[in-house]
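hey so i finally got around to running the thing on that chain from the lab meeting. sorry it took forever, my laptop kept dying and i had to restart like 3 times. anyway pasting the input first so we r on the same page abt which one it is
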Amino acid sequence: MLSASPYRENAEGHEKEHKIREALMKAIVEHQLPPGSKLPEEALAEAFGISRTGIRKVLTRLATVQMVNMTPKRGAFVASPDEQESRHIFRTRSLVELANLQDVTNRVQPVDIRDLSGILTQEHEAHHQRDAAAAIRYSAMFHIRLHAVAANPVVSDIITNLTLRSSLVIAAWGSQWQQGCRDSEHHQLLDALQQKNVPLLSSLLQQHFDNIVGSLNFSSHKTPPPDFRKLFSA
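ok and heres what got predicted. didnt touch it at all, straight out
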């Protein structure tokens, strides 16, 4: 009879890699790992208690969703979108999200409004507490949850990826206290959704993206390298 232990170990390995990938993704999205930060395999392996091979697999997965850039002989770095790519990301978000609004308004239910309102309450509190990481997280969560209403998993995957990449853009080029989106604009979007007013919702969403891009400052600046052991300590 074959032992189940190799299968169990394999499953445990995948689960650990998934948790590490989620931890790195969270640190990138919440700007704890700024764009352009080097991600040395040895330091990350030590911080997470995993082999360099395991870390390399995690970084490769992050590279497939364009959150990390991997360069031969140089290693892995947090993606750092330039001005052109940044504008393309928000232009694409605008195209996809606006196209999805009709389906969102057709399917929206009271439970969706309650969920979105709850996210906005948490986002507002994060702004009030000047908790940048939480504000960024809830800002992204609002857009992802909004478009999940349409129940189109293909569109949801695209919007989720673009929203995460937008966080990189804001980390790279946003002002010192620009935590994602303005929560007041999110409230306006929610009000328009409750009215099921697609033209108003579309206009507000386009203005929302224009405001974000208009607030970006495309000039270079440097950030100190992160302390991986401190950042990912249990």
